């Protein structure tokens, strides 16, 4: 017997005491699993507290800053200049950009732009100081930005190896209040990276220290349409 | 489980040595008290904690009840997404599979994300025996690996080390493994983290094979989730060409939506954060992004035996947050090593004897390593009634009974060490059902009370060594009742 059948057989024998689930099947809705739906009581909240759109964006800014991300606000017209300033503060440098980053974002900045190519090795990317990306969604209650590898975000490694990450969030369109709302918007088939502040560790005496392997500086630009 | 734990003494002996180590006790007290207060605050921030806890419990219970169905669904969805699924009945088989997969790549080193499952099976030792170096990349695991030490906490395996000890280990050992510690390294946590960053970066950049566990696996979509803080997880999951994940079969949740519960309860419960810095989710392989070869090794290693126990199976709900360790008065004083397992603390006391069986001295002693105060149950984000399982396991060890080992039902004999206890209980049962004998005994005890020893002789000596014996009153309750008719004639 192979181990697959062995383990599945053990599971079935282990559950011999469990009464048979007699929830009736629902023939008219073949995609639904009533046993599962009835098993879990989802009386928990979809979001915590009622906030206006502006208040939700404020909460995002507050929680990002609480975990040591640096938060900036800007309009679309100002955005290229904000990015220019943030890059210039780090000195002359190489900047990684994903293939689908809106070109106007970088129109004012004048660093050496590096495009991430499939053949680039991690060691080559290690020479780059900063990376500029967009995001898929941002979660206010937890101060989290989520990347899904979209054209304005690129491969996962480009937001990992450089020490400085500038992430642009379109507010309020890309902002949700809570974790449940974020999951509804995300596609599990894409590789996802959830980021809440810069890299940190609690491994020394269970106290949080920022800055281990990921980018040690995370700057989030909240850019509004008007 | 890991060979490093073989031959551990029983918990009372190991704990006795640990509590005499003042540095260890100081380190543990400092760390557990820091996290306790912060966790309470993080949990208090959300008003529906009780509902989230209940939902987490029910999702896990439902999954376990239909585990065979969800395992096959997961296998299908991971395979459809480009992954290769392997099944390992025990530690030895899992190690054999992983070793063969690494050998197929032609590589002789791997980078590892912190993973309880690979600790449990002793994967690093098995790889080393096959000439493959496994580098731990989590800061605490690195401290343990460099210090040739054993883990003592689920979340922070080096919790028993303070900053000064960590500095000394880095200065002494880093050069042996790769890039040495920077000159003049001090013991500030920020500098220690920087030293780890520099030391590990070259290993990340050249790594061709990564090995991980997973916090969750979604049956519906085939998605695996790793929750972490430092970015070492992202490095290992993203940069190598081949990724091998070893995951216990109980880590499944049915649907994508279920993550909304655990991604709220796990970070708040474990590191007391609203959200941990990094969470990676991947579904099979993605063209042009990350590892192009993905293997998932599904691990049993005692889990189906645990599932067969009607009371004990709830331990499989555990999401490894370690909140129960941080609140446990026994863990705080004895430390993690005394538990003789990669799973220390209250959850370890019910998990290790179920995963490994109770044949060894240490495993038979673990269910007794508790004062049954219940703090662990109160903080558990999936409501595992740890005291209930502890009492259940104690009963089976003392009285014997049916258990499942390697899929087969076995009948355990009563443990030898509890013969005196059983004899005392039998005597008590007889005395309480013979009122005349009980009364005579009580009168005799009252009259000879001046001559009673302060400690018990024979097998009772160990029990009374750490306890005050109760003094026998001059008059028993029954005598007092007969004399005064329940206090009505109290003046007599």
Written description of the protein model:
The complex is a heterodimer of chains A (226) and B (492). Helix content of chain A is 23%, strand content 25%. Chain A is of the alpha/beta class and 226 residues long. Chain A has one domain (53-224): NagB/RpiA/CoA transferase-like (Rossmann fold). The model of chain A has no long low-confidence stretch (mean pLDDT 91). Chain B is an alpha/beta fold and 492 residues long. Chain B has two domains: 3-299, NagB/RpiA/CoA transferase-like (Rossmann fold); 418-484, no CATH class. Helix content of chain B is 49%, strand content 12%. Chain B has a six-stranded parallel β-sheet, with helices on both faces. In chain B, strands 8-5-6-9 form a four-stranded mixed β-sheet. The mean pLDDT of chain B is 93. Chains A and B meet through α1, α2, α6, β9 and β10 of A and α2, α3, α4, α8 and α10 of B. β9 (192-195) of chain A pairs antiparallel with β9 of chain B, so a sheet runs across the interface.
Rg of chain A, nearest Å: 22 Å
- Mean pLDDT of chain B, to the nearest integer, reads 93
Roughly what percent helix of chain A?
Answer: 10-25%
Q: Kindly report the CATH topology of the largest domain in chain B.
A: Rossmann fold
Can you write the helix and strand succession of chain A as a string?
A: HHHEHEEHEEEEEHEEEE
Instruction: Work out the strand percent of chain B.
Output: 5-15%
For CATH, the homologous superfamily of the largest domain in chain B is named as NagB/RpiA/CoA transferase-like
Our measurement of the CA-to-CA distance between the termini of chain B, rounded to an integer number of angstroms, reads 67 Å
Secondary structure category of chain B: alpha/beta
Low-confidence stretches of chain A: none
Quick one: how many beta strands of chain B? 12
Largest sheet of chain B: 6 strands, parallel
Quick one: CATH superfamily of chain A? NagB/RpiA/CoA transferase-like
Q: Globular, elongated, flat, extended or rod-shaped: what is the shape of chain A? A: globular
- Helix content bin of chain B: 40-55%
Assign the CATH architecture of the largest domain in chain B.
3-Layer(aba) Sandwich
**What is the typical, i.e. mean, pLDDT of chain A?**
91
CATH class of the largest domain in chain B: Alpha Beta
């Amino acid at each position: 017997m192979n181990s697959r059948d062995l383990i599945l057989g053990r599971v079935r024998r282990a559950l011999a005491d469990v009464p048979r689930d007699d929830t009736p099947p629902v023939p008219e809705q073949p995609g639904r699993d009533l046993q599962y739906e009835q098993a879990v009581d989802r009386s928990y909240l979809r979001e915590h507290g009622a906030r206006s759109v502006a208040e939700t964006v404020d909460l995002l800014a507050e929680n990002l800053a609480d975990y040591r991300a640096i938060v900036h606000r800007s309009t679309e017209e100002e955005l290229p200049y904000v990015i220019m300033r943030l890059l210039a503060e780090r000195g002359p440098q190489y900047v990684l950009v994903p293939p689908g980053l809106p070109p106007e974002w970088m129109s004012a900045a004048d660093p050496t732009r590096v495009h991430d190519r499939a053949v680039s090795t991690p060691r080559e990317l290690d020479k780059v100081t900063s990376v500029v990306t967009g995001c898929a969604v941002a979660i206010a209650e937890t101060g989290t930005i989520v990347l899904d590898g979209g054209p304005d975000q690129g491969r996962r490694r480009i937001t990992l190896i450089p020490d400085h990450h500038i992430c642009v969030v379109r507010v309020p369109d890309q902002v949700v209040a809570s974790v449940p709302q974020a999951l509804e918007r995300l596609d599990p088939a894409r590789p996802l990276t959830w980021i809440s502040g810069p890299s940190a560790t609690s491994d020394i005496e269970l106290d949080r220290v920022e800055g281990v392997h990921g980018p040690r500086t995370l700057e989030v630009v909240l850019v509004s349409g008007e | 489980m890991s060979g490093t734990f073989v031959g551990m003494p029983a918990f009372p002996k190991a704990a006795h040595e640990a509590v005499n180590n003042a540095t260890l006790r100081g380190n543990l007290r400092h760390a557990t008290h820091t996290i306790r207060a912060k966790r309470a605050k993080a949990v208090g921030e959300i008003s529906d904690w009780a509902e989230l806890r209940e939902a987490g419990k029910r999702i896990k219970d439902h999954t376990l009840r239909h585990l065979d169905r969800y395992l096959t669904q997961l296998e299908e969805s991971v395979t459809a997404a480009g992954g290769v699924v392997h099944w390992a009945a025990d530690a030895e088989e899992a190690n054999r599979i992983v070793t063969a997969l690494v050998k197929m790549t032609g590589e002789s080193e791997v980078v590892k994300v912190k993973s309880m499952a690979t600790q449990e099976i002793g994967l690093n030792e098995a790889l080393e025996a096959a000439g493959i170096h496994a580098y731990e990349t989590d800061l605490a695991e690195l401290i343990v690996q460099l210090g040739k030490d054993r883990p003592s906490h689920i979340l922070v395996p080096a919790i028993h080390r303070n900053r000064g000890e960590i500095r000394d280990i880095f200065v002494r050992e880093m050069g042996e493994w790769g890039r040495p510690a920077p000159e003049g390294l001090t013991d500030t946590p920020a500098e220690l983290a920087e030293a780890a960053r520099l030391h590990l970066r070259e290993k990340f950049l050249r790594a061709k094979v990564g090995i991980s566990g997973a916090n969750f696996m979604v049956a519906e979509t085939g998605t695996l989730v790793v929750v972490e803080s430092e970015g070492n997880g992202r490095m290992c999951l993203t940069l190598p060409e081949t990724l091998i994940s070893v995951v216990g079969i109980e880590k499944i949740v049915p649907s994508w939506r279920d993550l909304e519960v655990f991604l709220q309860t796990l970070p708040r419960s474990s590191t007391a954060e609203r959200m941990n810095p990094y969470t990676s989710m991947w579904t099979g392989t993605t063209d042009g992004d990350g590892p192009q070869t993905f293997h998932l090794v599904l691990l049993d290693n005692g889990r189906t035996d645990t599932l067969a126990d009607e009371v004990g199976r709830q331990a499989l709900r555990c999401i490894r947050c370690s909140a129960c360790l941080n609140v446990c008065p026994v863990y705080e004083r004895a430390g993690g090593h005394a538990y003789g397992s990669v799973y220390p603390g209250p959850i370890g006391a019910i998990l290790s004897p179920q995963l490994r069986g109770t044949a060894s001295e240490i495993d038979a002693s673990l269910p007794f390593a508790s004062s049954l105060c219940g703090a662990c149950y109160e903080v558990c984000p999936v409501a595992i009634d740890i005291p209930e399982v502890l009492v259940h396991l104690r009963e089976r060890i003392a009285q014997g009974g049916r258990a499942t080992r390697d899929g087969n039902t076995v009948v355990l004999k009563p443990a030898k060490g509890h013969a005196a206890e059983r004899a005392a209980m039998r005597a008590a049962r007889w005395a309480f059902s013979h009122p005349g004998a009980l009364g005579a005994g009580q009168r005799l005890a009252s009259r000879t009370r001046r001559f009673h020893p302060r400690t018990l002789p024979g097998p009772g000596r160990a029990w009374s060594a750490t306890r005050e014996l109760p003094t026998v009153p001059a008059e028993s309750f029954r005598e007092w009742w007969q004399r005064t008719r329940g206090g009505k004639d109290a003046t007599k």
